[in-house]
Amino acid sequence: MNSPTSKPRHLLIIEEPEQNTEIYLENKVYTVGRHSQNDIVLYSQTVSRHHCTLLKVKYNQVEEQDVFWIIDGDLKGNRSTNGLIVNNKRCLSHELKNEDIITLANHVSLKYYQINHNHPNRKYPTIKIQNVDFLNLQESSTTIVGTHDAQKNKTNLLPNLNYNVTSVPHPIIEVDYEGKIIYTNSIAKLKLPNLEKLDLNHPIFSDLFNNLTNPEEQFITREITLDLDTYQEYIQYLPEEKIIRIYLFDLTKQKETESALEETEAKYQAIVRQISEGIFLMDLNTRKIIDCNQAYCQLLNYSQEELLTLTIYDILPIDDEVIDSYIETITAKKQELMIEGCHCSKNNQLIDVEVSISLIQYANKQILCFAVRDIRQRKKTEKLLIKQAYYDALTGLPNRVFFNQRLEQAIENAHKFNHQVAVLFFDLDHFKKINDSLGHNLGDKLLKTFAKKVSSLLTSYQTFARWGGDEFILLLPNVSDIKEVSDLANKIFELLERPFKIEGQLLHIRMSIGIACYPQDGKDRDTLLRNVDAVLYRIKEQGRNCYQFYNPKINAQSSELLTLENLLYRAIEKEELFLNYQPQVNLKTEKIMGIESLLRWHNPELGLISTPKFIKIAEETGLITSIGKWVLEKACYQYLEWEQMGIAPEYIAVNLSPRQLQQENLLSNIEEILNKTNLNPQCLALEITESCLIEDTETVSDVLLTLVDIGVNITLDDFGTGYASLAYLKKFPFHTLKIDRSFVKDITESRQNVALVSAIITLAQALDLKVIAEGIETEEQLEILGDLNCEGIQGYYFSVPLGAHEAHDFLKSYPLENSTRKFPTLADYRE
Prior knowledge:
Layout: E1 9-15, E2 20-24, E3 29-33, E4 40-41, E5 52-57, E6 67-72, E7 84-86, E8 89-91, E9 93-95, E10 100-105, E11 108-116, E12 119-123, H1 150-161, E13 172-176, E14 181-184, H2 186-191, H3 195-198, E15 218-226, E16 229-238, E17 243-250, H4 252-274, E18 278-283, E19 289-292, H5 294-300, H6 304-307, H7 312-315, H8 320-333, E20 337-344, E21 350-362, E22 365-374, H9 376-390, H10 400-417, E23 420-428, H11 431-438, H12 440-455, E24 463-468, E25 471-479, H13 482-495, E26 500-502, E27 505-507, E28 511-518, H14 525-542, E29 547-549, H15 559-571, E30 577-586, E31 591-603, E32 607-609, H16 611-621, H17 624-645, E33 651-655, H18 658-661, H19 666-677, E34 684-689, H20 697-710, E35 713-719, H21 726-731, E36 736-739, H22 741-745, H23 751-766, E37 770-774, H24 779-787, E38 792-794, H25 804-813, H26 826-830
Parallel strand pairs: 3-4, 28-29, 31-33, 33-34, 34-35, 35-36, 36-37, 37-38
Antiparallel strand pairs: 1-2, 1-11, 3-5, 5-6, 6-9, 7-8, 7-10, 10-11, 11-12, 13-14, 13-17, 15-16, 16-17, 18-19, 18-22, 20-21, 21-22, 23-25, 23-28, 24-25, 26-27, 30-31, 30-38, 31-32
Helix pairs in contact: 9-23, 11-12, 15-16, 17-19
């Protein structure tokens, strides 16, 4: 005798660092996250408050086909911070399969299994009921699948039905062919108390004797209702014995369950239709849209009826062959695919969307489920940041990042087609005097006018870029004769012979142009740029206001740089290097949250030397290794000293250069210093610039991830100054973004800068990153940043960089984060 097939159960194993938890999923909805009101609460701080939702879905009214879907965030459309990763692939929603692994955060994951009820520790695939053993069915677990044809199932069923009838836990009644009740079991007497009274008028005997003319044994089934209860009636005709045997199986609870499930399914259908994320289903064979929710209809401005008349080819504005290739990839690999693209609305507008596509089985059909997210606002922000990444905000010219890419392309083409490339490096002579005497506003207008006039002399394939400040650079990608270069340089100088009229004033501009050519002056980008810079420096030394080609005799390093290099080797020994400290203030609490250490060099003969200048030398010579280690150790010891005095802020920030991040021993040096100073790693923030992320990103990523694991905070410094990319924010584990001072400088004058700063702050908050704006010098700048909800600020408005003693006094007299001491307000302090 076969036992009934067990219904698969759903098991979720939660793996956390300190414990594993097993949960059998029996409810229809489970919310998962860090918030205490979730159904499943996870305590890791890296898990979002409302991280994901589990939905139970019943397919085709067959209970064995129940499945669970997991959705990123909650059912209101809010997304988690970290995102949802299933089987190492990021997704917005996913139909769970046996042995799926869901990653929520570092060291927190969920494992999903479908298991057999009789063997909870073994994994089984979902199975369907094939035969029913009526003698062992229990009312609490009775499942009837379809109807049985008497002839097809006679062999299987009769042995069960003729088995000891006294052991069957269901009503059994026998009547002879003359209509006399000859047997009722005890269950029948209990369940049917009015049977003897009604006799053959009882509903179970209705039409019972219509089939007596058939001499062969028969077995038929039907459904009957007795009062408020529903039964499945199995009638067996035994002509040899002239007996009709009736079995009754109570379906009341099953019907109630089915009704409840239908109601539940209707509710979840309503949830899916009301969820803010667009969802639609496509028949794999016909490519037709067969269902969609209201959110998707609103996104494309279609009614549901209109959408259901369309195919996937109608809404994707790409070639049909490309669409088919995507579909073939999904069906072949049977893996979820997430892509970004555009969907075409009813009015032919292209809508930027992020789409998660998965393959599901439903009613013997293969269906593609599309979860569609509107990303137009994100794209708008991204385009704004990309524009900033490649173009100068003031002049609208390409910036150095754009120029460097074009130069590399030009060199590659020149090598391939055997022609020359020319680079012209411009410097406006004594521009600083114009700024100082006439003001920055007029100076900016002069730069814009200069850029416009020079651009008017150029062709579309020549690239004219602003390098920074009053420096510009020009690329001529296809030069056949050097005379072309000198002729263009002469035209530019002729342009400057006439004064520029700015705000009613006539301004005369003088400039110097250094020129270097590929391949004779350098066979790669860096060599060309280094040599053209050397030429420009030589011109400025020799009197300015001319152009000059690179001469191989010109030393790549000027005499000043050589002198500085020699002095720098002895600077550490002679204790000429020292640190200054500049506070970082929380704009909301008006308290100090951190302090940045700034490296300075004072030479007895040359005085205070420009930090960017000697850092560049240190990187080129390799001295940055020893200098960087000295800076980090000095800053850590200084922080500990303040900590012992009870005046230390939350953290101390130390800058890392690109060259330092490439050092093999960087991690060991940092760990050595942390152990040596006994500094809590969470009190250390390491600041890196965007240029650090350009080369060998895998190495940099590994280094930063290791530092984060140790507990060190990572800050992206000077954000938006040339290398800004959203991809970096996803790839690297940053805690804080520092908005470059160039944005803050003109924020009171430029609406574009306000928009850019607002976009950066919004983006950072969406990614759960802190934001610090640097270079705050005026109260107007402070007020605008406050209105934009900027969290942290740093600049001369609060404090110039201070020596160790001055910083001690400042920290002692100014409120710190988490401090209970009473202090004046920010306004009082400024007064």
